[in-house]
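Objective 1b of the project was to move from sequence-level analysis to a structural picture of ligand recognition. The entry below was assembled by the postdoctoral researcher (A.K.) and checked by the PI before modelling. It contains the amino acid sequence of the target and the SMILES of the bound compound, flavin-adenine dinucleotide.
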Amino acid sequence: MLVDFSKHSSLGLGIKAEVRIFDREELGLDIDYKGLKELGLNYLGKFNFVGRGNNILVSKGEKLGILRGFNHILDLGNVVEIGANVKSKEIFNYFKEHNLIGAEFLAHLPGELGGLVKMNAGMKDYEISNLLHSCNINGKWVAREELSFEYRALNTKGTILAARFLKVVGFNKTLAALCLKMRSNQPGGKTCGSCFKNPKGDFAGRLLELAGMKGFFIKGVGFSEKHANFLVNTGKETSPEPALEVIELAKQKVYEASGIKLECELAIL
Ligand SMILES: Cc1cc2nc3c(=O)[nH]c(=O)nc-3n(C[C@H](O)[C@H](O)[C@H](O)COP(=O)(O)OP(=O)(O)OC[C@H]3O[C@@H](n4cnc5c(N)ncnc54)[C@H](O)[C@@H]3O)c2cc1C
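Corresponding predicted holo structure:
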């Protein structure tokens, strides 16, 4: 299927690229994902899967895949299992309704379970990996201890089909309200949120401002006046090129100004 990634990305930028759709029903995947064995367990790992497109810039678009039909939320006793396609807001609502800790920061953090786990999405000290019990990667359940998470990344390779979370009672209303408040001063419109990861002990936004990149734009694509690390698309541009140019320039300017090599949080595919 041909997908126009300028439409399937919150930044509104990207090429048209061929995508293989993996529909759970068409694949004949039962709840234990046994159907995958026929394809070969590493088959899914050959594709770069995209979720809801909130942190991607598709510029080459090689071997892309999209999962469909992984929409379940199952109470399994001491853990809750969530499918890759379940949206962050639905996860938040489920945890709130069932008085569980761990998803308070997800109310206004866009994405679906697969993308959230791959990015180890979070706010401040709260990350999706905090209460993770295990993850289904390429059809196989992998325990939390065997997964390699770091700030804004799951380094373990493969396609996330579902994840299980520990059930800990006590949804934190105060934290949910605080996370919502933190959102209020962030830029709206077409954006991917943070473009760069915060380097240890510093903030990408501060470094970008110091390097003169806050409010710098190429063809309407650049770093927000409101929040220097937010990459925004203010015009009608749909090509990924201006974003690639502005990102490279920002890396160079920050390195010149502070000797720090910024690393992209945005996934360039
Ligand atoms: C307005 C705004 C605010 C944001 N604020 C925050 C924030 O506060 N904190 C934060 O952490 N992020 C934030 N983000 C970024 C974004 O919401 C997260 O990175 C989110 O996890 C992306 O989920 P997605 O489904 O859209 O994934 P996509 O953007 O589609 O993909 C992201 C990455 O995950 C990979 N991926 C997707 N699905 C799978 C899968 N099933 N298996 C394996 N890999 C997969 C992709 O290849 C890509 O590398 C923000 C974005 C926006 C637009």
